[in-house]
Please model this.
Amino acid sequence: ATNRTFTMIKPDGVENGHIGAILEKITASGFRIVAMKFTQMTKADAEAFYAVHNERPFFGELVEFMTRGPIVAAILEKENAVADFRTLIGATNPADAAEGTIRALYATSMGENAVHGSDSDENAAIEGAFHFSGREMF
Ligand code: CMP
Model:
């Protein structure tokens, strides 16, 4: 069925000049943009968004990284959006990401991995609602 996922081009992807190339790959892969903005997360935003990881050893580093500069946040729609987007971005660690995936092409490291993709329909809805109001979704 047609469903939605949530993505962010993370601060490293923005800093390294990859916004255009990443959006081109996303739209060329059949995703429709439902919502999109250029924004920066505060520390409180990142701590809330990544609350599920707050016991992990890398949590502080993750919050520091995700707040250090602007991101592109977007909601995307397609048949099987969550799973297909995770295939398009590749494994969390770019060293393990399949050839041609967004992380293989544009990520720096496990922590600075260029893009986020929701891991379930439920989290896609939660994460999309974190960044966008109903009137920002089209
Ligand atoms: P993502 O899956 O988008 O959201 C959680 C993030 O935590 C993940 O991307 C990585 O950027 C980061 N992360 C996961 N594992 C590690 C790790 N071992 N060290 C540093 N960062 C990590």
Notes: The pocket of adenosine-3',5'-cyclic-monophosphate is lined by residues 53, 58, 61-62, 92, 110-111, 113, 116 (CB under 6 Å). The chain has a mean pLDDT of 98. The two ends are 18 Å apart (CA to CA).
